Structures are given as structure tokens and as C-alpha cells.
Amino acid sequence: MSTSARVRQGQILELAHTSGLASVEELSERFDVTASTIRRDLTRLTSEGKIARTYGGAMALNGQVVESTFRQRNKQSTAAKRAIGRRARALVKPGQSILLDSGSTVAALAHELRDASELKLATTSLVVLDELAEAEEIHVECIGGTLRHSSAAFVGPLAEYCLERMSFDTVFLGADGVTPEAICEADMVQTRLKEVMCSRANTVYVLADSSKLNHTPFHAWARLPEAWTLITDAAASDAQLEGFRAAGVKIIIAR
Questions:
Q1: Nearest CA to 123 among 90, 151, 95, 86?
Q2: DSSP 3-state assignment of 174?
């Protein structure tokens, strides 16, 4: 193997340490080499046990990406999350039954919903419950289960059992990362719950600021249905959105 290839692979590994991911296309453009060259690099790094491959040619470093707490995430991209929350609020109509996932961006939507009326809402999120504690015009159901402290939300078989006996007009999902096909989360108990949520709603929205697009820091995945809508902020670039458009994902930009 040439020295330049080893140097490039070292830089790919360093990138994994700092961001936790990169797609084949992004790496090909960054290093000005073909996609097949990047795939060979990733194959070698995988065989050496230094990275793990994920959906769509993405890769992440084993054991190096640490999940942040809700409090930490709530301090990141706050303006973008508020904009997404306001835009998502405009989609909620009186009389609807909606399901709210956990996460700081979904919590921003809950904040905007405090003045809503004639609304039936269910959530697994303690933060959403706190936002709506005084919203007397909203009928709120708490989906219980096992408390996941880092996300301040309930997960597990009890939550799934409850949801399988309910249906909703719309679900609003959060994500640690999202690709055109799936949502990335820190563990499979979260992704299993998101898949159940998707199955119980007529319309699926994923709320994700631009830093989450094509971001795959972990190895647990929730497949998204064929028809779903991404709501993101105005900082999302054409390059970030290209794959979503190609996959037929509807995109709403919160400006």
C-alpha cells in the first residue's frame, strides 16, 4: 500500500474521531479520489477494527462517539431548532391527534404548541410534558416505560405496548442523525420505538437541524417509511439535501 493511501486513511480515521462519520461521496470529494478508492480505504480500516460501516456507505468509529445528554443537546443549534419548531407548529391543525418523540428539536415544537387548542397529543418525552404542563386546552397522554436518563424520555416494551394500541394523524420525530432512508440513534431500544411510532401515524415528519443531515455517529438505525417529510433549517446546503431529494423525500425549510 502506498504512503499516500496510508496517510489518507489516517486522515479518514481522524475525521471519524472528530465527527463520527463521513459518506463515501463526501470523502471522495474531500480527498479528490474516486469513490471506489474510498471504499477500499474504508474496507481496510474496517478489517483493522478501526471503524464500522453503516448505511449508504457511511462510517463511524467504534467506541469513540459518546452520546450527549439532553441538556447538552439543548444548548446546540438553538436558533435553528426554534425555527424548525415554529415551522412544524404551522402544520398542526385543531382536532388532530399527534405523537411527539423525544429530543431537543421536538421539545422546541412542544414549546410552540402551548397555545394550541382542540388537540390530542401523546409523548414519551418528559421535556415535552413539562412544556405542556399548563396547556389546559391540549389533551395530553404520557407514554410510559423505562426512563432513559440521557434523553429524558421513556422507551422499552411498555412504551411500545402502549403505542401499538393507539393511532395518530401525525408523528414528529427527533434524530441524532438522519439519512434519506433511516434515523440514526445511540441504541436499538430507541430505534425500535421510533419504528413503532412511524407505524402508528398517517404522516411522518423528522425534525432535524442541518448538522444532523447525513450524520451517522452511532450504529442503531430506524428505517423510515417510503413517504416522509424532513423539516430542517435554512443552513442546510444543496449538497446535504441532494440525497434526500433524489430519494423522493419531501423537504420543508424553516426560514
A1: 151
A2: coil
Q: What are phi and psi of 10, to 5 degrees?
A: -65, -40
Nearest 5°: phi and psi at 156? 100, 180
Taking only the tens place, the pLDDT of each residue in 8-22 is: 888 887 777 655 556
**Which is nearest to 204 in space by CA: 247, 172, 235, 244?**
172
Residue of 128, 226, 126 lying closest to 172 (CA atoms): 128
CB-CB contact of 40 with 27 (8 Å): no
Per-residue 3-state assignment (H helix, E strand, C coil) for 15-83: HHHHHCCECHHHHHHHHCCCHHHHHHHHHHHHHCCCCEECHHHCEECCCCCCCCCHHHHCCCCHHHHHH
Can you give the C-alpha Rg of the chain in angstroms? 19
Cβ contacts of residue 174 below 8 Å, gap of 6+?
A: 101, 102, 103, 104, 105, 106, 206, 207, 208
Angle between helix axes 24-31 and 3-19 (nearest 10 degrees) is 130
Give the burial class of 234: count Cβ atoms within 10 A of its Cβ; 0-12 exposed, 13-18 middle, 19 or more buried: exposed
**Amino acid code (one letter) for 122:** A
Tell me the whole-structure pTM to 2 decimals: 0.74
What pLDDT sits at residue 41? Answer: 87
